[in-house]
Amino acid sequence: NHLAVSGSSSFHESVGGKVPLGLRRRQLRVLVTGGAGFVGSHLVDRLVERGDSVIVVDNFFTGRKGNVAHHLQNPRFEVIRHDVVEPILLEVDQIYHLACPVSPVHYRYNPIKTIKTNVVGTLNMLGLAKRIGARFLLTSTSEVYGDPLQHPQVETYWGNVNPIGVRSCYDEGKRTAETLTMDYHRGANLEVRIARIFNTYGPRMCIDDGRVVSNFVAQALRKEPLTVYGDGKQTRSFQYVSDLVEGLMKLMEGEHIGPFNLGNPGEFTMLELAKVVQDTIDKEARIEFRPNTADDPHKRKPDISRAKELLGWEPKVPLHEGLPLMVTDFRKRIFGDQEESTE
Ligand code: NAD
Ligand code: UDP
Ligand code: UDP
User: Fold this and answer.
1) Which of 36, 115, 238, 276 has its CA 20 to 30 Å from the CA of residue 320?
2) Quick one: three-class SS letters along the chain?
3) Which pLDDT score, from 0 to 100, does residue 19 have?
4) Residue 59 alpha carbon to ligand 1 centre in Å
5) What is the ipTM of this complex?
6) Nearest residue by C-alpha to atom 4 in ligand 2
């Protein structure tokens, strides 16, 4: 068990000798890069709740202090404004490396910065992990499969990615990040984990980041038409954020490197998603068709057999249950306090 035998120099002592194995764990120092973002802040909530000391490193490009503000009084919590493209010295036991612009709107805003974050940023965090002997988890993406020629996508599929397109800074950036991670594992004996995350939604998502779930929800709440790109028949699988966080933690604590697909296999066309949003928010919401973006993958659905078998993980929250939780949060953030909310 890694938690009992971690080789890194922790200032925390193991908690007691006689606790049954499995329940026994010492308090860890955990670094979450991108921890002020959507997924990162939910992960931080769980780590803090578990009693770990958590350091967030974030440059606040898309992250918000508000996402972690509720921890600022906690002496075991710390936020550092820092860009992972620059080196940093810290002492931790585990590194969850999430920092990266994610939505097309953000990663295309400055593609060179995006690829630098994926390559130089990941290299720095791996160098850090190597120096201190920390376990390193990379949050990669289903985009490494590109416009997949295999459906559903299995981890052994090598993908179909355009290396010179407008999405490449993100897709190829993450592919290189995976390569670096495996090379540090093989070449420097680093303990690593790789998650390939499929489309995830939930409270704290950036409101105007252009991703489909956040767009549709904000549009329906603002009484604007839902913008369906292309013919709306392309598919995606949508995972609620708590399921993802559970999967990331199981992966970090487990014995397997991966890569593991972490996603919800429930597959929806964009028109079906629009219908779920209409049913949840406003049955009268109109749909407006717009031209699709270049290189848009036609289909995407994870095969999660490997995560089920080796991590004992599978998502629990279906779209019709997760979406209302996100709507409550978006309603509050879009309309402020004048709207009643149920949370
Ligand atoms: P997010 O934009 O909410 O979070 C990313 C965080 O990284 C932000 O807080 C941002 O400020 C920070 N960041 C960006 N560049 C940085 C840099 N150079 N230095 C330091 N901090 C930096 O996005 P998210 O949805 O929470 O995504 C988190 C991770 O999960 C990303 O690595 C992303 O690629 C991966 N992922 C997410 C999804 C999804 O659907 N949400 C899907 C696949 C993969
Ligand atoms: N690095 C870092 N913090 C550390 C150790 C390394 O940011 O505690 C950075 C370092 O600046 C370098 C990168 O991680 O750019 C890779 O480090 P590594 O030691 O693997 O490579 P080297 O420095 O030998 O090129
Ligand atoms: N999309 C859409 N309307 C929007 C935003 C996106 O129909 O307002 C489509 C987009 O063309 C893509 C799918 O929704 O086919 C998912 O897009 P998103 O950017 O959310 O995720 P990704 O393409 O990274 O999976």
Assistant:
1) 36
2) CHHHHCCCCCCCCCCCCCCCCCCCCCCCEEEEECCCCHHHHHHHHHHHHHCCEEEEEECCCCCCHHHCHHHCCCCCEEEEECCCCCCCCCCCCEEEECCCCCCHHHHHHCHHHHHHHHHHHHHHHHHHHHHHCCEEEEEEEHHHHECCCCCCECCCCCCECCCCCCCHHHHHHHHHHHHHHHHHHHHHCCCEEEEEECCEECCCCCCCCCCHHHHHHHHHHCCCCEEEECCCCCEEECEEHHHHHHHHHHHHHCCCCCCEEECCCCEEEHHHHHHHHHHHCCCCCCEEEECCCCCCCCCCCECCHHHHHHHCCCCCCCHHHHHHHHHHHHHHHHHHHHCCCCC
3) 42
4) 11
5) 0.97
6) 128
